[in-house]
Amino acid sequence: MTASLTTASVADAKDQPAAVRRRTAARRWLSRVPYVVLAGYAAVALVGPLLIDYNPVQADLANRLLKPGAQLSSGGTAWLGTDGLGRDVFAQLVYGARTSVLIGISTVVVSAVVGTAIGVTAGYFRGWLDTVLSRGIDILLAFPAILLAIVIAGSFQRSVVVVVGALSATAWISFARVTRGTALSVRERAWVDAARVLGVRRRSILVRHVLPFAAGPVVALATLEFALVVLAEAGLSFLGIGLPSSAVSWGQTIANGKQYLATAWWISALPGIALSLLIVNIGILGDQLTARFGRGGLR
């Protein structure tokens, strides 16, 4: 009995590393799923509109409310069906991906540049400048971000630039708060004190000794903000604010299908699924980057 137990223990000890390796490999492959999904969205956004000839304004009432896979009057196939005006839902998904990616990247870049500049400046110089900027951020945080975006987008003529500006009006705050905290910590480090003693210019200190430590948190935050921006843009488009009628957005497609939910569910459901899949994978990627770079290497 003792010998058999010993043999079983040895066998378990040999099998355990293999099992651990398999679980590690599985987790590694699962962690790459968001990269694959986001790469697919990026490819669709960049290449899809070049391959699909589609006019988002032109209606074709002869092909309205066709089910997915139905035959068009022209002889083609509506792979994902058509909406209430006969427009192809698959083409709207492809063009909507381009709109979401374009607005998301533009808003995140603008917000990151503005927020990082303000946050690093306030955190490093402190004093009255930090006080004024902090109080300004507190005032902006008192207003709901989506409400402020609705007010700004509704006050101007509808365009992509207006939507980017409306979403950037509050998105920069998160970048400013993160980089301000990083600058407050880094400015007390020995190498920064040494640079000041040696007479290095403040601009060089900010660029060479402070900003590199803010890069990690900014990249991690950018992924999460991208998801929020895409969702907010869909919300504005759903309300009919911001983008012109000639632009295609998932939010507009979802809004166009809300009156046909009982008879033509695919009009709203398919863009909703595409939007949800994108948001979930960006969130997972953001969590991974936050765990890796969230503290900016300040340990």
Automatic annotation (TrEMBL):
One GO CC term, this protein: plasma membrane
Keywords: Cell membrane, Membrane, Transmembrane, Transmembrane helix, Transport
Family to which the UniProt record says this protein belongs: Belongs to the binding-protein-dependent transport system permease family.
TM region positions: 33-52, 101-125, 137-154, 160-179, 210-243, 263-285
Official protein name in the record: ABC transporter permease
Topology of this chain in the membrane: Multi-pass membrane protein
InterPro entries: BP-dependent_transpt_permease (IPR050366), MetI-like (IPR000515), MetI-like_sf (IPR035906)
Residue ranges occupied by any ABC transmembrane type-1 domain in the UniProt entry: 97-286
Record has Iron as a keyword: no
Xref: SUPFAM superfamilies: MetI-like
Subcellular compartments: Cell membrane
Sections of the chain in a coiled coil: none
Organism whose genome encodes this protein: Kribbella sp. HUAS MG21
GO biological process, one term: transmembrane transport
